[in-house]
Amino acid sequence: METLKEIAPNVHRVMFMSLVGHPAWRGFLRTITASAPDFGVEIVPAPVNNAAQVERAIEEFAREPNGGLILPPSPISSIHTNLIIGLTARYSIPAVYPFRAHAVDGGLISLGIDPTDLWRRAASYVDRILRGEKPADLPVQAPNKFELVINLKTAKALGLTVPPSLLSTADEVIE
Question: In this structure, is residue 164 part of a structural domain?
Fold first, then answer.
């Protein structure tokens, strides 16, 4: 939310789109809804199941001005990447995506876990298990490396100026 407001300060409504029934949906929604007042935004939940629902949700959301989109990691963000990026471009909706590939494919910003780091750490667990450690004895690990990727071409197309403070914290800037 903070990153979205930093690049698009006029955003007052934020669509939060995810797959209906995704196990993390309620937790994500609860967290983002709790933080919304701190940023002066209204959260618009958009649980969707398919491409038609994605398209309908974004088209309806775009009818009112000053909207932004936050897309958490879910099958919807992976399966319908091109559709979502195309619709946010068509309707000039600044959006924050969960993975680097989204920004590479034309999304405005991606802010999420570094999957390479997760795989590397998982490999060390596999090694430990193969050497005889019991999986139940290994601690659960949460992601601890996140990456911010900004697509300047998309920012320009949306009429947004990326603040230098945000550029300086980016792991990658696509020009």
Answer: yes
H or E stretch covering 104? helix 100-104
Look up residue 79 and give its two tokens: 């399966």
Q: How far apart are CA 76 and CA 54, in angstroms?
A: 8
| Tens-place pLDDT, residues 90-133 | 999 999 999 999 999 999 999 988 878 878 888 888 888 899 98
CA–CA distance, 25 with 4 (Å, rounded to integer): 20
Q: For residue 90, count other CB atoms closer than 10 A to its CB.
A: 11
Q: For the domain that residue 40 is a member of, what is the CATH number?
A: 3.40.50.2300
- Do 102 and 81 form a contact (C-beta atoms < 8 A)? yes
Number of compact structural domains in the chain: 1
Tell me which residue of 79, 22, 10, 12 sits closest to 47, measured CA to CA.
22
Q: Is residue 97 part of a domain?
A: yes
Q: Which domain, by its residues, includes 151?
A: 2-113+145-174
